[in-house]
Design a protein that fits this description.
Blueprint: H1 4-10, H2 16-21, E1 27-32, E2 35-40, H3 44-57, H4 61-69, E3 70-71, H5 84-87, H6 92-105, H7 115-122, H8 126-146, H9 150-176
Antiparallel strand pairs: 1-2, 2-3
Helix pairs in contact: 3-4, 4-6, 8-9
Amino acid sequence: MMTDNQVAATKKYLTIDEILAADDTTYAEAEAWGGVLRFRTLDAATMIKFSEENKTSEKTAGIRILVDSLVDADGKPIGTPAMRGQFMKKNARVISDLVGVIMRMNGFSKEGVDVSAQIKAAGGDKEKLDALVEELRGLALQIEQAGTDKTKLEAVVIAPIEKRREAEREARKNDSGKTD
């Protein structure tokens, strides 16, 4: 059995200088508008600013995080706050998909909520669509309240999705076991 000193000797513990010097930016790409867009992970200061701005302007949160994450092929930021209004005129579904990529790469969700499937399932039923809108508003509020706390975000977003999927699997399993 190894002693604590032997275990410590096999690990490389970083100094503060090594931590601060480490380049921990990662990148993701997504296709949209006939080409490839590149995004970077956001640093803690940008995420804190994003979270604080959400308290006053939650409706533009997706656009803001998209613009802040957008980089060129060399990883240099190319988005500016002045562009936010221009992106507001782009296809909402495309923006939503891109924001999903950005949120996942920043560790805020493992899977996106497939709103389009829920809308299709509601069809033209106004009551179902209104209920879905209210559910999404509630989810947006919970996400905003969770801020940048990954554990809280996973509890708000991931756990309900996994619970719903498990219920759907059980329902399919029960349906397949029925005999007529």
